[in-house]
Amino acid sequence: MSNPELEARNAALRSQVDTMLANLERQTAELKQAQADALAKTGKATSKDGLVEATVNAGGIVTDVKLAPAAFERSTPEKLGRSIVETIQRAALQAREQADAALAPYQEGLPDLPDLFPGAPSLKDLIPKAPPVAQQPQRPDDEEPPDSYLRGSNW
Description:
This protein is mostly helical. The protein has helices at about 5-40, 70-75, 75-105, 115, and strands at about 40-45, 50-55, 60-65. Strands 1-2-3 form a three-stranded antiparallel beta sheet. The radius of gyration is 27 Å and the shape is rod-shaped.
């Protein structure tokens, strides 16, 4: 192989590697932005009875819980506690679904580092996997709350 042919071949390979590296840099920047967008997601849910509202961030951290002014009059402490947990779980699931949707384009279909460089770490490993949201078993509402807990208290 002559020297000009070898130089042309090397130049073509360099160009191909430069293109691959530029694509990798672009994908990495896009992934960082998608991760930031995913972390900014929040979920908000309201209980079925309208007494509880919860907000949860994409990390699963409860950032706000609001109780309706009538919450203590219209519910028992046990029911209210279950309602708070269920509402928080629904808000957390919503936040996780939004975060997953923001990261979905980076989980399938795009070439990954090992595809380009055998033995390289996968960019997909950088995308955090959220744990499943636990579901509370449903309990029957077998008792009606009194008119007010403050008035009929045994304390």
